[in-house]
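Putative splicing factor, arginine/serine-rich 7, Lygus hesperus. C-alpha cells?
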Amino acid sequence: MTAQSDQPAVPTTKVVQITNIAPQATKDQMQTLFGFLGKIEDIRLYPTIRDVSVPVQSRICYVKFFDAICVGVAQHMTNTVFIDRALIVTPYNSTTNDIPDEYRALEIAAQASVVPGLYGNNSKLPPHVTNQIEGTQPNQVITTHDPALVANNLPMYPPLPINYDSVRIEEIRRTLLISNLDPSVTAQQIIDFFSKAGDVKYVRFCKKELENGINYALIEFSEQTSIINALKLNGVEMGGKSITVGHSTVNIDKPQAKSNEAAQREIEEAMTRVKEAQNLISAAIDPVIGILSKDKKRGRSRSRSRRRSRSRS
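C-alpha cells:
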C-alpha cells in the first residue's frame, strides 16, 4: 500500500501574483504587507509609471519569496481589503520561477482580464506584426517588427517606452506624423489625400514653435496595414508643398466619454454649488430686505402720525 499524507503539497513556485491593487499603492507598501509572511527575494509593482497623464485604474504586483511554502500562506491574503480594494492573490508559475517583466505582466493581465480596467486587450495588430522587448533594465524598450516594412523598403518602427500598454502601442503603430504641411491645408484635405492609402480614423494638427513655422499633423488609420501605402506618399506634393510622412511615437489623444455615474455626480456637484450660491445670496439679501422693510414700516407710521395731527387741528 502507498502511504498517503494529509499534509498539503508545497507549491512548486515561489512567486505570487497580486491583482486588484489600488492605483495609489506603492512598492514599499506591498513589501511591508507581504513581508510579514516570509522573507522576500524580489518584488515588482506594475505599471511602474506614475504620471497623471497616463491614467491607471489598477495595479498588479509580483512577489518572489525565498521559501515556496510562503506562496500557500500568501493565498490566504485573498479578499484582504488594502486601501480600498479586495486583493486577489494567486500562484504564478513559470519555467524559470522568476517574476515576469512589465510588458509580459501587463499582457498576462490583459489576456486573463484579471485586472479590470488596467489595460484592455483590444489590440488590432495583424498576426505578422509582433512586439518584443529589447535592452536591459532600466533601459528596456518595446520594438515592433513588421515584415511588410522591410519588403517595401520603408523605415522601421521607432522603439517605444517599456511602460506603454498594448492598446496604446497598437494605436501608435497605426499613426503617422505628417510634416511640412502648407498652413492653408485643412483636416478634410488631409483625410481626402490619405484616404487612397486606407480609412482615416483621426487627424490632429500639432504646430511646433519653430522659426520656419512648419506645420505638423498626426493621422491615425483604422487598420495598421494602411500605413504601408501611406508611407509611400512621403515626398509627394500636397497643397503646393512636398510633405514628409514618417512613423509617430505618440498616439492621438481622444476625449474620454464620461460614464453615466460620473456625469450624474458632476450634475449633483453642480447643483450643490448652485444651492450654496443661492444660500449666500439669500444671506446677503435678507438683511437688506429687513432694513428696507423696517424703513418702510417707519415711513408708514410717520405718515399715519402726520395724518392724525392734521385731523386734530
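The helical segments are 27-35, 69-74, 102-112, 147-151, 166-172, 187-194, 226-231, 260-312.
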